[in-house]
Amino acid sequence: MGRLICVSNRVMTPQQTNTSGGLAVALSSALKQCGGVWMGWSGRISDETQLSVEDGAFTSVTLDMTQAEYDGGYLGYSNSVLWPVFHNRLDLARFDPTFFEAYVSFSARLADAIAQRVQPNDTIWVHDYHFVLLGQQLRARGVANPIGFFLHIPMPPPEAFLALPEYRTLGAALAAFDLVGLQTTSDVSNAIGCLRRSNGAQLLPSGRVSIDGARFALTRAPVTIDATDFAPAGPLVRSATVRRVLGVDRLDYTKGLPQKFRGFARLLERYPHFRKTTVLAQIAAPTRDSVEVYADIRQELEGISGAVNGAYGDVEWVPIHYVHRAVPRRKLGALYRSAAVGLITPLRDGMNLTAKEYVASQDASDPGVLVLSSFAGAAEDMEAALLVNPYCVDSIAEALAVALTMPLADRVARHRALMAVVGARDSQMWACDFVRQLGRAARINRGAPAVSVA
Ligand code: GDG
Question: Which of 86, 136, 335, 346 is within CB 3.0–4.6 Å of 176 for a Cys-Cys bond?
């Protein structure tokens, strides 16, 4: 087998050992195994067209963005159009007609760089909404290698997808990939629904999709974590007097943080015996600060936590500990373990790795309880969590009351069922399975004997 070329917006260099986040861990371990290339944005803004190359266990190749590509393509089309629309937040999308050109521009320059370096036996794996067009741009440059795409965020329902002025172009671009991977079965059925309406796609008896004669496979491939990285080390340390409910999220409007704070306030209002004995600790790591709606949500959270702390707190007890700062990754396991409840309530989420990390960190003999939004992709397999409607503060408050009083035997049984899901597959298995399926899908597309692709 040839090399694996991974493409994602942010890239780890071979010298970066301190991996954070599921995507980085999964790709770096797959790349270290196959000895491949990781390509994407350098994280810098300049007019420099020279590529930065670093060699090690794999090679990283990165490109600077121009100011126009950063403003219009990255902050604009990727994060102010595709991100809100794919999370079904049409109200937050900024349909500025200049954004798309900048989005095309960076992706096209990256396609040039890949086309110059690709070798005949290489497999190319493109990640996420920043690069929906890249497969098509590579084909236009004569690249005939297997090319796969994985979407980390949810696939929206057709009604949202069709709100994108460029929906037909984006739909057609997906057909240039051999395999498109999505997180959940509902993402797969949304993708089929979107492509039928946007491009007249047909679902073939083999399960593959055809758009104007171009055929590709769709697969569900839920992202996993390496549970062993979070396995409890050392004794369980929990406060005897105050029980902690914990949330760890990027500060993003999709993560449902205002509703979570209000749900916790409803718990205190409805069940006064939880006052003084329970706190909500919310780590909200800063992200995309320069996009306006992210500043708005930050202000909203400061307002709600201040109001709740003012209404219920006193000198000895502050109900909501809101931390707008990232915690070092090495400290996450102990933090998860110390919490009696993991409260993860996104309004919409492709998967949600934090939910899996919380479960993997628990002491199996005295585990905490996971309260999870039923609109996170993770909920599809994690039915043993307490599933809630994140829009409904009463649903959050009631689930919290159940979680905080759950008998040990129930906690152990739920945790065992959740660990059976979280511990079953690691990130390397996820990456290797995808690449294997991609190879099969590409062989079928090039006329090799038909083997059905899941
Ligand atoms: C996208 C999709 C999908 C969070 N706060 C801190 C911190 N984190 C780490 C968590 C976890 C990761 O960031 C967040 O992963 P999520 O899955 O929750 O969410 P997104 O960043 O939105 O990721 C998502 C994912 O891609 C993978 O496919 O699941 O649906 O939106 O690993 O631990 N890490 C540190 N400090 C923090 O304060 N070190």
Answer: 136
User: What is the structure's pLDDT at 15?
Assistant: 81
Does one domain contain both 301 and 246? yes
Do 213 and 334 share a domain, yes or no? Answer: no
pLDDT for residue 18: 57
- Regarding whether 161 and 116 lie in a shared domain, the answer is yes
- Co-location of 294 and 353 in the same domain: yes
The tokens for 147 are: 């090319």
Q: Which residues contact 200 (CB under 8 A, 6 or more apart)?
A: 211, 212
Q: Is 273 a residue of the active site? A: no
DSSP class of residue 328 equals P
Kindly state whether residues 438 and 388 are assigned to the same domain.
no
pLDDT at residue 364, rounded to an integer: 96
Between the CA of 353 and the centroid of ligand 1 the distance, in Å, is 6
- Residue of 87, 127, 152, 415 marked active site: 152
Residues 195 and 282 in one domain: no
Nearest Cα to Cα of residue 70 among 293, 295, 291? 291
pTM here is 0.95
Structurally, how many domains does the chain consist of?
2
- HSE-CB for 41 with a 13 A CA cutoff: 21
Q: Could you say which of 128, 187, 226, 349 is catalytic?
A: 349
User: For residues 122 and 3, is the Cβ–Cβ distance under 8 A?
Assistant: yes
∠295-297-298 over CA atoms, to 5°?
65
Residues 6+ apart with CB under 8 A from 427: 22, 25, 26, 29, 223, 224, 225, 226
Residue-wise pLDDT for 105-121, tens only, equals 999 999 999 999 999 99
CATH code of the domain containing 39: 3.40.50.2000
- Token pair in block for residue 84: 């809100």
Is 453 inside any structural domain? no
Q: Give the range of the structural domain holding residue 324, as residue numbers without chain letter.
A: 227-424
Q: Which atom of ligand 1 is nearest to the CA of 22?
A: 32
Please tell me whether residues 191 and 285 are part of one structural domain. no
How confident is the model at residue 454, as a pLDDT?
A: 41
d(CA 291, CA 277): 37
User: What residues in the chain have per-residue pLDDT under 50?
Assistant: 450-454
So what's the pLDDT on residue 19? 55
Q: Among candidates 340, 343, 335, 337, which has minimal Cα distance to 387? A: 343
Asked whether residue 212 falls in the same domain as residue 304, the answer is no
- Helix %, strand %, coil % for the chain, to 5? 45, 20, 35
Which pLDDT does position 296 carry in this prediction? 86
**Ligand 1 pocket check for 223: Cβ under 6 Å:** yes
Residues 70, 77 contacting (CB under 8 angstroms): no
